[in-house]
Amino acid sequence: MKLRICLIEDDPIMGEALVERLELEGYVCDWHETAAAARAALTSRRYAVAVSDLRLPDMSGEQLYQSLRESGLELPPFLFITAHGAIDQAVRLLKLGAEDYLTKPLDIPLLLAKVRELAERARPPAGAAATLGISAAMRRIEAMLPRLAEHADTVLITGESGVGKEWVARALHRHTDPAGDKPFIAVNCGAIPEGLLESELFGHVKGAFTGAIRDKPGVFEQAHGGTLFLDEIGDMPLTMQVKLLRAIQERQVVRVGGEKSIPVTIKLVCATHRDLKDMVQKGEFREDLYYRVHMMHLHVPPLRDRQEDILWLAQGFVNELCGAKGLPPRVLDPLSEATLTGYPWPGNIRELRHALERACILGPQSLLTPELLFGDLGAGLGCETETATPENLADYLAKCERAYITQMLDQHGWRITETAGHLGISRKALWDKMRRLEIARAEGPGEAEHVTPG
């Protein structure tokens, strides 16, 4: 995978020249002409290196760097470009943590050498790979897991249904148990009838109730030495919440019908799609339990807010599903990729996986089209694919490229610089593609055609 560079430069001539030179070196380069645009990009996307001018139209490069550091973001190595008169400012930035600075006029070979050196640090070691996602949000969560595994005994994971809360919990467990010999026990608190929940959690002794023909350990005991994952803790009845609080605080359980306290050593991971704080205010969730489980909190954003993860997840799911079901390899056509990234995924990762599984099973050919992924909805999500076989491959690819670029322009309000940065190409390259593919913004009622050139 190509490494991505964040270029922050307001001079259009310098910016375009650096973008083209960096792309020739094999990098993907996002070019931002203001500190505000750069800040938004650095907050939402992971970069190998940031190259920034010190003089920017809305704030200085130094102010941008300081504000990013104060926000607690995991920043890429910063390389600053400065005039001779601002060397003192650049030295201050080195003391704050910046990697290096270069003076104008730029020595381009030296700049490329420094970028290459810094970028190689960001390249994962051989065999290392992201396990949760490649977006900045999921990388930040992944970076926190080793410390949580070492120091936290209770963790709360929140997020919409289907975002992968159990996936995060299992990743945390792997950090806790690198050898893989400790238990990971998962239970959905909302799926167990209230009358059976206490027995499921804490176990029961023989004769405790009708049908209790033998002693049975609960999930707390089953998870002893490992991780207990309580999913949808927000759906737990109030009567059980006080008993759960006692078990969490004391790390001891008493089986239903028993008298003996049984100590347990577990890492407890709770998860919910509900707003527990709001439930506390409504009297639906105990305040003392809320503060006990909320000590360490991870929030998993919905898939629509981390588009970079969509194709990464999709390719992984396709490979996994084809291997597990003995199917021939499947690939996503360009229009399918554009459709996947443009769809809002209300069901998040769960919905994405189901769509891909359906497509892999029903698709008679290796190519996965929008119709296979979305059924009848697929035909309306991009260019038509079932009208006729394209005259040739070039026509088909051009059609898909036009649909994707138009979609990205719409998403970015037809701002050329932002769209080009998202696509990983220069503004000049985007203009050339728009001319070649005859892409123009449609006029609305009483609205003249308008494209913002940056």
Short description:
The protein has 454 residues and is of the alpha/beta class. It has three domains: 4-122, Response regulator (Rossmann fold, 3-Layer(aba) Sandwich); 136-301, Rossmann fold; 306-436, Helicase, Ruva Protein, domain 3.
The biggest sheet, with number of strands, parallel, antiparallel or mixed sense and barrel status, is: 5 strands, parallel
| Structural class by helix and strand composition | alpha/beta
CATH fourth-tier homologous superfamily of the largest domain: P-loop containing nucleotide triphosphate hydrolases
Shape: globular
Count of folded domains: 3
Helix proportion range: 40-55%
Taking the alpha carbons of the first and last residues, their distance comes to: 28 Å
CATH third-level topology of the largest domain: Rossmann fold
Which value, in Å, is the CA radius of gyration?
Answer: 27 Å
Percent strand: 5-15%
List the helices and strands and how they pair.
Elements: E1 4-8, H1 12-24, E2 28-32, H2 35-44, E3 49-53, H3 61-70, E4 78-82, H4 87-96, E5 100-103, H5 108-122, H6 136-151, E6 154-158, H7 165-176, E7 184-188, H8 194-202, E8 203-204, E9 216-217, H9 219-222, E10 227-231, H10 238-250, E11 252-254, E12 261-263, E13 267-272, H11 276-281, H12 287-293, E14 297-299, H13 308-325, E15 331-332, H14 334-342, H15 348-362, E16 367-368, H16 370-374, H17 393-411, H18 416-423, H19 427-436
Parallel strand pairs: 1-2, 1-3, 3-4, 4-5, 6-13, 6-14, 7-10, 10-13, 15-16
Antiparallel strand pairs: 8-9, 11-12
